[in-house]
Amino acid sequence: MNKPLIMVSSVTYAIKGRDILRRMGYRANIERTPGSLNRVGCGYSITVDDLDINKAKNILSENNIKIYGVSGGEAV
Amino acid sequence: MIYLDNAATTCTKPCGVRRAFAEALSKYSANPGRSGHALSVRAAEEIYAARQKACGFFGGSDPAGVVFTLNCTQAVNMVLKGILSPGDHCVVSCLEHNAVMRPLHALSAAGVTYSAARVHPGDGAATAAEFERLIRPNTRLVMCMHASNVWGIRLPVEKIGEVCRRRGVLFAVDAAQSAGVLPIHMRAMNIDFLCVAPHKGLYAPAGTGMLISAADAPLKTIIEGGTGTLSANLEQPEELPERLESGTVNTPGICALSAGIDFVKKKTVQCIHEYEMDLIKQLYEELDSIKGVKLYTEYPSEETGTAVLSFNAGDILSEETADHLNKEGFAVRAGLHCSPAAHGFMGTMESGAVRVSPSVFSTARDMRAFAAAVRRFAGKSAI
Description:
Oligomer: heterodimer
Largest sheet of chain A: 4 strands, antiparallel
Radius of gyration of chain B: 21 Å
Shape of chain B: globular
Strand content of chain B: 5-15%
């Protein structure tokens, strides 16, 4: 099963979000948002291996990272 | 050639800066973040690391608030034109560079007004009071230089920041002459926008600049285009830094800028400032002993000045003096230094002045040699 992707606007916010999650001890990574999910164009996503996706979303939102969608959820 | 024009740009760059520039050209030349492939992401990681470093160094609130620009002037334009709208008022100092004054003049045609606060050299409380006195109900922004590029006079940005916070006005600082030589902490100093010329006190290459934003206030854009984000939408993205970084950024310059911050951090801002001030004090004493040399400022002080000293040889035009010194092997800058306001303040609009600005690579021997050259010129010219 594919990992859920948390879609953000740019590589800047993807790296920022990944670093925040990593500092908290989670295994986070970044990747280019696949074209099939990306209706706004040119986005990046964050993946987290060992954290509930909703908790990850909350952490990112609390750090002013706007989430544009989650794979399996509604892409914005 | 002895280079004493570091207020224009530092000429000697540290080994680490040159190495980082060359390494970026060979390792990080893909377009950062645009393409999604491994080389693009690797370049983007370097750019983000530079944002983090700059944010930490200047006490910013978020690495995403660090915007890379062409130079400090572009950063200043982004703030002034991004914040001010017709009907708004802005307060500046009476010493501002044309980087501030020309955009303000252009904005005045569109209904923006501005006032210039008198600076009282050495009296921070009096200067801050002048700024506060000029704040009106429609004042949206206070913008001032941290240090004069002509006279080395420091403005009390901590005190002005307090005034702005208390009065609910945005505060922007032009740190072209201070970044790397004076302590700057945006949050502690209540600075909403910091404009930086990294090619000066951070020893980065020319073609680098930074706008660091700590404000929630969104800036209107002065340029729009591709950002590698939200590309299906023709509206410019709202999130920083991409909102203000249309087009490809200067990756080698930014990597070198990051190395420049490392260089300054290792030496420490305080040691650099003290070292340069010792040089400028030595020069002041030597020039002050030459008959006919005009010095316009008080004896330099670490607390109220930076290492910039301007003078004239009698009534000889500054350009003529600098031309003679150039032939003797000294690089200094004469004229108005893009700062007619600062020359108007000191009464040197007609003559201009000869500006001497050492760097951390200058030496006491350079100062002695320069003073000796001025002494010879003064004797020959019978000033």
